[in-house]
Each structure stands twice: as C-alpha cells, then as structure tokens.
Specification:
The complex is a heterodimer of chains A (about 130) and B (about 550). Chain A is about 70% helix and about 0% strand. Classes of the chains: A mainly alpha (about 130), B alpha+beta (about 550).
C-alpha cells in the first residue's frame, strides 16, 4: 500500500514539474515572438527610410553633380555601343593588326566616329 | 476503517487518472507536427502598411514614399507654466508662432497641435527639454526623394496626406486603399530620362533667358510618357511655398499656338487625303495676301517650292496654299481625328482644353496649316506628331506603366505609306533643313522646328516667340519622340540673335537624344532612313 501512494506522489510531482516547465517555455517563446514581431515592424520602417534614402542618394541630379566634381566620365557616345551579333555577322570586317575596340565596331560607325564629337551635357560651350 | 481506505483510493485513482490524461495529451502534443494539427497555432508576420502606398518609376525607383515621423501636441491642462514652456520650445523650433501657441495653451482645450511632422533631431531636442504636458503622436510624412524632378507629374499632398496635384490627386483613393502592402503605383517615367530632359531644358532656359519651358519624351509606339517637364517647377516636399506660376503644368495644362510644327500634320493629311503628292509644289515667290492678312516666310526662298522643300524650309506660304487644296472640312476632320478639338485623356487632372475658332474662314484654314489660330497643349502635339510617324495611329498618352508589351488602344488616322513618307521628310529636315542642330550622329534623328509669334493685344508680337522642336529617333523605326517648347527665348551671340525653334529648341532636343538613346537601349545604326534619298531628290538646292 505505502509504495503505491509514494509512487503516485512522485508521478504527480513529476507531471506538475513538466507542465510548469512547458508553460514557462511557452511564455518565454511568446515574449520572444512578440519582440521579434515588433522588431520586424521596426525593420520594415527602417527599410522604407533606407529605400527613400537610396532613391535620394541615387537621384540623377545629385549623381551628376558628384560626377562633375570627382570623375571625368562623360555620357555614353554612340560609338561606344555596338551589337555583338552585328559585328560578328559583318563579313567585311577588315583583318590585320586592329585594336580590340575597333575590331568590334561597325566600319560605318568608325568612319563617323573619326569626324564627330560627342556632346557632354552641362560642361562645354556654356556662355 | 475499510470505508475510509476505499474512499481515499477512489480520490487517489481519480487524481492519477487526471494526471495520466494530461501526460498523454502532452506527449501527444509534443509529437504532433506543427501546422498540420491547426493553422490557428501559427502566427503570421505583421506587414507594415503605410497610410499611402509608394509611387515608383518604370524601373522601381521610389518617386514618392511615406515615412514615419512624429508630431508634437500638448494637453493644456497638464502644461505647467506655459510661458516658460513656449520659450524653451521656441529655442528648439525657431519659426514657432509664440503668441498664438501661448494663447492656445491657455485655452480649456485638451488637445493642441504644437508642430506637425518634426525632424528626428527636433524630436530629440524636444524630448531633452522634458516638458510636462507635451506629447508626441506618430504620423506619416510624404517624401519625394527627387525633389522638383517630378513636381508636376507625381504631384503633392497636404499635411494630412490628401493628394492635391498630379498623380497624387488623380489616384488619391487608389493610393490610400491598396490591395496589399506591395501594391505600389508604377508610373511610365524613367528617372534618368526625366533628369536628362529637365537638365537640358534648364540649361536652354538659362542660356536663352526663356520665361518658361515644356518638354515631353514619348514612346511613339505605346503612348507611354517617359518624361515630362514644365519649367519653372517647384519642390513637392514644400509645395506650400510654390507660386501659381510654378505649379502650372505647361506640358498638359498650357495651350499654345505652337507654330510650324503643325506643318507635320498639314503635310501628313495632305498626303493621306490624296490632295497632294510629294512631287507637287507651290509658288512661294512673294508673301501671300488674304483679305487684310499677309502670310510671310521666316526663311524665305522666294521661289517655287516642292512639298519636301515647303516642309524642310518651313514655308508658311506653301503650307497655307496646301491647306486650301486640302480643304477646310478635310482639315477639320483630321484635326478632330487627331484629338486636337478636345482635351486629351491623361491620368492627371491638370489638362487644358484646346482653343480654336468657332467659325472657320479660309484664313483660319490657312493659318492653322502652320500652327496659328489654334492653341493646343504640347502633350496633344506630341501625340499627334507621333501618329504621323508610328504607322498612322493616334495613341493616347499614358503616365501609368502596365508592364512590357502593353499598348494603349489607338485609332488609325494615317496610312502606313504616309507614315513612311513623313519619316523621310522629318529626317530630311534634320539633315538639310531647319532642324540641323538636333542631329545626333548614329541615331537617325528626324524632326520639325516651330517658331510661333505669341498673340499680343490683337496682333502677333514679332519678338515674343514660342520656339519649339519635335524630334523623333531612330527615324527608320521610330521609337521615341522628344518635344521641347521654349517660351519667349532671347537669341544669343552664338545663335546670331535668332530665337527660332531651329536655333534654340533643336539643340536641347539633340542633346537629350544623345543622352537618353544609350539609356533606352536604342542601337546606333549605320543605315539611312528608307525613302530618304528619293525625297532628297525633290529638294533642288542640295549640292
């Protein structure tokens, strides 16, 4: 008789402890989840600010100003654009010791390139 | 004794059974896979939903967005010593209306706005003051990262976030009630093209001291507006400080007598109706006298001119006679088909109604042929000119990007053959005619100049002009149209004091094309426009 009661008490204690532990863990996870959700919302807001800042810092007028100050790059000229297919299929490509750039450019474009100048916005011919 | 023991056993049995049940349930829960046993266990991530969705350009660049900010308010009942509080606040918020705020703080209200939408630094400073009775409320502020770049298009909002102009006004409900957080409004603009156009127009306005300017970059095949600029403009972040002159959208709301660019339409309707052919010509030896009016040429050749010559040298005398041959009814029917008698459809409400004579006499038919006596918006002109070269379709302009492959439903106005002839004519104008300064090697630019005398008090003013250029590229398979209109430009030494479209509006169009063509993926071509040589043969003074 006595051992049976003893076993019962032990079992109840263990079950109680396990239940308490489980509840405690769940509570902890709940807090964690709420915090993470709050953090997620904050991050989304921060992301919006960063996106707006990215758009602002990449705004073409601002980039142009920076380019004017620190770089010497100019707008892309038409002689710098060539289609690979066109160049490759062009049968009358002159052979010989050509530089890399002229080899992949259409002959007609090369011809115009020799005489034309490429306009640069906002720099030259200002009054 | 036996009874007591039995009762005790029953109680023990009940408790053990209950605990066993709980244990079994726990073990069961522990082994059950999450998600299957019930969706109500999982909790989704909360999505942040701004009060107004973002406006993006065609490449996803943010044009307008809502950012969280805080507004300062006060509960006058809880404010101790309002005088001291206001004094301290004025130190942080310099332009605070001190007297007004003090009066409101002494009233019996429980809620008084102190300042809406503070900067993060101001919020920090106000918090540091530690004033009792003052509180912050989270609000959202509409931010336009590109400043004045899209002022007239995207528009602006009031302090409570209600759209007041442009897209913000027209799509107010749609922006406030999106389908979900990612339901942003995507517009047809390209921020790079918009900047190139505005930059070059600003430069032209500066050099030629123009009063104002309007510009459009239009996709001639689907009606999408890639860029639209009206100068002077304003910063929509501070729209309250803008003057009425700055807010006025000259590209869509202003209607003007646009001058010789109309000859594009006159020649196209002449060819399409069969009234003229390219081989025809008219006598332009001397000014044309009609009733009390005299029609003169800006670039007089004083000889017989063929149709291509009338077009490329922009002869008013020739165009006026051409219009008479076309006939007033036919001319009006084509204007009607080109939508020049009604306000155009576009997704903003700032749209001007065209002005045209109620009764058309012969003189009206003749002046309309070269763009006088009928006032339309630059947007209408862009769409109409696009119809002459895109295969003959009038496609309404749109500001909303519907995705690749979308095309606004258009209606046929000209035949494809006429369209091809117009391409050659416009190309010829840039190679040999009045539009030479718009040429960009490699991109086959075509176009037409326009120099209109502005109507004054009853008479046209000789020296106040509206100079324009409409350019299209590449002319063998037109893709984009660039229109620039300058209001009252003044010629410089470099332009020999000329202020006509060919001198002041063609160069910026050429520069815009040189800048945007590589961005838009237009391949430089070595071939000339089809039919160009045949048309060139009809011009006698080409060496």
């Amino acid at each position: 008789m006595k051992p049976r009661i003893f076993h019962g008490i032990i079992l109840s204690l263990m079950a109680g402890a396990a239940l308490f532990y489980l509840k405690y863990t769940v509570e902890q996870k709940e807090t964690q989840l709420t915090e993470m959700q709050a953090q997620y919302l904050e991050d989304q807001k921060a992301l919006r600010v960063l996106k707006a800042e990215w758009a602002y810092l990449n705004s073409p007028p601002y980039l142009q100003e920076l380019t004017r100050k620190y770089l010497t790059v100019r707008p892309l000229g038409y002689t710098q654009v060539a289609s690979w297919v066109e160049s490759a299929s062009s049968t009358h490509l002159p052979l010989g010791p050509l530089t890399y750039a002229s080899k992949y450019r259409l002959p007609a474009i090369r011809e115009v390139a020799a005489t034309a100048s490429i306009p640069t916005p906002g720099r030259d011919d200002e009054p | 004794m036996e009874t007591v023991r039995n009762r005790l056993m029953v109680a023990v049995f009940l408790f053990v059974a209950a605990f066993l049940l709980l244990s079994a349930r726990m073990v069961g829960l522990g082994f059950s896979p999450v998600g299957q046993s019930g969706e109500h266990w999982t909790r989704g991530l909360p999505a942040y939903q701004a009060k107004r969705v973002d406006i993006l350009d065609r490449n996803g660049v943010v044009l307008a967005t809502n950012l969280e900010t805080s507004s300062l308010y006060a509960d006058p009942k809880k404010v101790q010593n309002p005088e001291a509080a206001v004094r301290k606040l004025a130190g942080v918020l310099p332009d605070l209306a001190v007297g007004n705020l003090l009066a409101r703080l002494k009233s019996d209200k429980r809620f008084v706005w102190v300042r809406r939408k503070l900067t993060p630094q101001q919020i920090y400073q106000v918090n540091a003051l530690g004033l009792p009775g003052f509180f912050f409320q989270a609000e959202e502020q509409r931010v336009y990262p590109h400043g004045p770049l899209f002022a007239h298009l995207v528009g602006y909002v009031d302090i409570d976030g209600r759209g007041l102009g442009g897209i913000e006004y027209n799509f107010d409900e749609r922006l406030k009630n999106p389908l979900d957080a990612d339901d942003n409004l995507v517009l047809s603009f390209d921020v790079r093209v918009q900047h190139a156009l505005r930059d070059e127009m600003e430069r032209a306005v500066r050099i030629f001291q123009a009063k104002a300017a309007a510009g459009i970059v239009l996709d001639v095949n689907n009606g999408e507006v890639l860029a639209m600029v009206s100068l002077p403009d304003f910063d929509p972040n501070f729209a309250g400080r803008a003057s009425a002159d700055q807010i006025f959208n000259r590209a869509t709301n202003g209607v003007y007598e646009l001058g010789s660019v109309f000859k594009t339409l006159t020649v196209a309707m002449g060819l399409d109706s069969g009234a003229i052919t390219l081989a025809d010509g008219y006598d332009a030896t001397k000014p044309l006298k009609v009733a009390s009016y005299t029609i003169t040429d800006d670039h007089p050749k004083a000889r017989y001119l063929t149709v291509p010559e009338i077009f490329i040298y922009s002869s008013n005398i020739g165009a006026a006679q051409m219009a008479l041959d076309i006939g007033a009814e036919t001319q009006q029917a084509y204007f009607e088909k080109l939508g020049l008698f009604t306000a155009p459809f576009i997704e903003i409400t700032e749209v001007g109604r065209p002005i045209y004579p109620a009764y058309w006499r012969d003189i009206n038919t003749m002046t309309a042929a070269y763009g006088h006596g009928i006032a339309i918006s630059p947007l209408q002109l862009a769409s109409a000119v696009a119809a002459t070269i895109n295969g003959g379709y009038l496609i309404p302009a749109t500001l909303v990007h519907e995705g690749e492959g979308f095309r606004m439903p258009g209606k046929k106005v000209f035949s494809p053959e006429v369209s091809e002839q117009m391409r050659a004519l416009m190309r010829l104008t840039v190679i040999e005619g009045t539009g030479r300064q718009a040429d960009v090697p490699g991109y086959l630019v075509g176009g037409k100049t326009g120099t209109a005398e502005k109507p004054g008090e009853g008479v046209y003013q000789k020296h106040a002009t509206l100079s324009s250029f409409v350019g299209v590229f590449p002319m063998d398979r037109p893709r984009y149209l660039v229109l620039v209109v300058l209001d009252e430009p003044v010629g410089t030494k470099e332009t020999f004091n000329f202020s006509g479209g060919g001198w002041v509006a063609a160069p910026p169009v050429g520069r815009v094309i040189a800048r945007i063509a590589p961005i838009l993926g237009v391949e430089p071509l070595a071939n000339e426009v089809r039919g160009y040589q045949e048309v060139a043969l009809l011009v006698s003074d080409i060496p």
